[in-house]
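Researcher: Next entry in the queue.
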Amino acid sequence: MAVTWLVCALRGSQFTIDWHNYGYTIMALSHGPNHPIVWLAQWYERLFGRFSSHNLCVTNAMKDDLQINWNIKATTLYDKPPAIFTETPVELQHDLFMRLAKTHLQFQACGENAAEEMDRTAFTGRHASDLSVTLTSGRPALLISSTSWTEDEDFSILLKALEEYEGFVTAGASLPSLVCVITGKGPQKEHYKKMIATLRFEHVKICTPWLEAEDYPVLLGSADLGVCLHKSSSGLDLPMKVVDMFGCCLPVCAIHFNCLHELVKHEENGLIFRDSQELAGQLKSLLQDFPGSQGRLAQFRRNLQAGGGQRWDQNWDQNVLPLLTGP
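Model: Structure for this entry, 327 residues:
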């Protein structure tokens, strides 16, 4: 921030800050809120933040916090998904699942291919007669969560919820099997992979692939339900992963924090939970009609489809460009 401010001052340029979170609150996750380096980072951000020409932030809650605590006036600019995040046609789903099945057993079809199918995955099949691709009957539900495997996401909550879901099915509940895909890389991935390895499920399968950049939106657009465990370090930013999921019209279960309601509308485009037990109940409730079109999960998807929604470039042109080019 100091270097950017200095260069802007020397060149006569505007110094604009896009606040997606506070750096010092992220540092506090690993160092603790009272560490001297965290205090220094907070002072540094507050000082040089006041030197800016323009400020953007991602929530009204952050806008208010900047104004009240740091005397910085900001404009709220909600994140929007790029155009690549959209619902995936079933043919592209099949191509991706076929490739993933080569390295991840969770995507492989159980049993032999039906006589009329050339190739098949756990979710899709290509028919030999006309080469058309359809979703298979009796397929598992595809649950996806993406993460950087950092301290602000506690994946033990999801794992405990999946244990409870397994218990529901074992006890006779009419629920589909689940394939849970957790994507991403990060420092705590190996820790959670060891936890996953100890789980013994019959009706739930978990995999943790690293996806190529072009495959990630295709997988999001193929999923049935998203789960977000992001808890903002400041309590003032919103998870981009949910923005991308909504771009794919993918309903979400997201863990509660103070300003999450600015993105996830409970009982409209998803559900908000506070602990593993509540998440397990939501999974059971949303998937009991799967893959039917009359349940709450299908209604949430229709709500997202009807909402349409702005894309990132449109949002920028409409809300940011006038700010930067105006008088």
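Model: The longest strand covers residues 141-146.
Researcher: Noted, moving on.
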